[in-house]
Amino acid sequence: MLLILAEIKSIERVSDINQGISLYKEGKFEEALGVFDQLLTKSPQQPLLLLHRGRILSRMGKLDAALEDFDLLIKADNYNADFISDRAVVLHLLKRNGEALSELDRALSLDPNNPYRYSSRAFLKDRIGDLEGAIADYDKAIEMDPEDAISYNNKGLVEEKLGYKERSKKSFDKADNLVGYQPIKKKDTHPQKDSSSPKPASETPEQLKNQPKKQDGGLSFANYWKTVGKVLGNKSTRAEFFDFVQSKLGKKK
């Protein structure tokens, strides 16, 4: 009888976790947070619960609280590269970029054969202005996983920022080929401008258009987490993230 009751409680708990995850994916963060807060009252140190609550708090912009959860996770398992990477994201959102970069270095040293460790560090390097360093990391990620459309696309964005037009075009084309993206060619109804004419210095670079807007001088947490979450995710989310990158980060065809 006791065994049956334990199994019922276990099934109910899994059901609650799945409900919380579903609410999180639907963007119902307050409701999802309530689910995981309740679960954590019964199992305060359960890593899976802390991980999901930390991610929810991050999406809500409650970064100090999120960091506390990731600190607890790493205290329990100091060698978990996924926990360390998630914590690095929160540190970056808190503008503690030196610490964030150190954490991604540590995650990579613990998981050196995972190309996503390089692509996630490259993404951070791009955000903090180390563009050449970002390209080097994307090159390493691509060397390890030649089918990684995300790294090709993001590498193209960085190359574009540096003015490497031919290199960026090759990167974008490779990314398109990998995901089967075919740009729609529109009929040109306007006379073509002289490509040799320099662009005005005040013109917004193409890759910076349609960027997520900042709010009150800070980062747009929802848009930024959508991006970072996919970069730090697994291969099954690549095509979905590629679409997001194309629409939000201003890669034009």
Account of the protein in words:
By secondary structure, this protein is an all-alpha fold. The protein has helices at residues 2-25, 29-42, 47-59, 63-76, 81-93, 97-110, 115-127, 131-144, 149-161, 165-179, 221-231, 238-248. It has a domain at 113-182 and 204-253: Serine Threonine Protein Phosphatase 5, Tetratricopeptide repeat, CATH 1.25.40.10. It contains twelve helices and no strands. The longest helix is centred in the N-terminal third of the chain and has 24 residues, at 2-25. The radius of gyration is 21 Å and the shape is globular. Residues 1-9, 193-234 and 236-253 have low confidence and may be disordered.
